[in-house]
Amino acid sequence: MKFWRTFSLVVIAPVLALIASGEETETVELNAGDEAPDFTLPGSDDEEYKLSDLLKDGPVVLAWFPRADTPGCTAQCKSITKNGDLIRKFKVNYFMISVDSEDDNQAFAEKYGADFTILSDETKEVAKAYGVLSNRGYPKRHTFYIGKDGKILKVDRNVSVDTSAEDMAKYLEELKVEKVEET
C-alpha cells in the first residue's frame, strides 16, 4: 500500500497537475506559404515592434528560443552576435524571440553583447499563434523566415544553436533575399 501512495505522489500527481494547469500542446503548424500572424511586442532595446510595420522594410527572421540563459539559447545568441555580419548582408530584420520577460531578455542581451533585438512574448499569445509553444510552456526552437508580403517563406525546425547565424545566412541566400549593396 505504501508503494502505491508513493507512486501516486511521485508519478501521477505531477501529471494531474500539468493537466489541471490548462497548458495545451498547440496544434497550429505554420508552413511555407502560410500568412505569418501579426504581432506587436516589446524588444530588449525598449522599442515596440509590429510585424506588419517591419515588413515594409523587407523580410523578417524570427528565431524562437526556449529560455534565456540556458546553454542552448546562450550558444544561439552568441552565434548570432558573433556572426551577425553574415545576416546583415541581406535586407532583412532579424530577432530572437521568447516568452521571457522584457527584463530577462534585456539582461540576456546585455550579458552576451547581442547587437540585435530580442523580443518578449510574456503572454505567450504570439508563440501560440505561431504554433511553437510546447506543453511545458516554453517555445520550441524554430526559426521563421517571413517575406515582405507577410507569407512565411521557410520554417527551420532543426535549428543548430552553434551555427545559427551561418544557417540563417545560408537560408536567406537560398530564398534569394535581396542583399545590401556594398559601398
Annotated CATH homologous superfamily: Glutaredoxin
Shape: globular
Strand order across the biggest sheet? 5-4-3-6-7
Helix count from the secondary structure assignment? 7
Query: CATH class, please?
Result: Alpha Beta
Mean pLDDT: 88
Spans of at least 5 consecutive residues with low confidence: 6-11, 13-26
Largest sheet: 5 strands, mixed
According to DSSP, the number of beta strands is 7
| Element-by-element helix/strand order | HEEHEHHEHEHEEH
Distance between the termini: 77 Å
CATH topology: Glutaredoxin
The helical percent reads: 25-40%
Structural class assignment: alpha/beta
The CATH architecture can be named as 3-Layer(aba) Sandwich
User: How many domains is the backbone divided into?
Assistant: 1
Characterise the protein shown here:
The chain has helices spanning 2-20, 51-54, 71-82, 84-87, 102-111, 125-129, 164-174, and strands at residues 40-42, 48-50, 60-64, 93-98, 117-120, 143-146, 152-156. It is α/β, with parallel strands linked by helices and 183 residues long. It has a single domain (27-174), classed as Glutaredoxin. The protein contains 7 helices and 7 strands; from the N terminus they run H-E-E-H-E-H-H-E-H-E-H-E-E-H. It is globular. Mean pLDDT is 88; it is low at 6-11 and 13-26. Helices cover 36% and strands 16% of the residues. The strands form 2 sheets. The chain has a 5-stranded mixed β-sheet. A two-stranded antiparallel sheet has the order 1-2. Strand 4 (93-98), helix 5 and strand 5 (117-120) form a beta-alpha-beta unit. The termini are far apart.
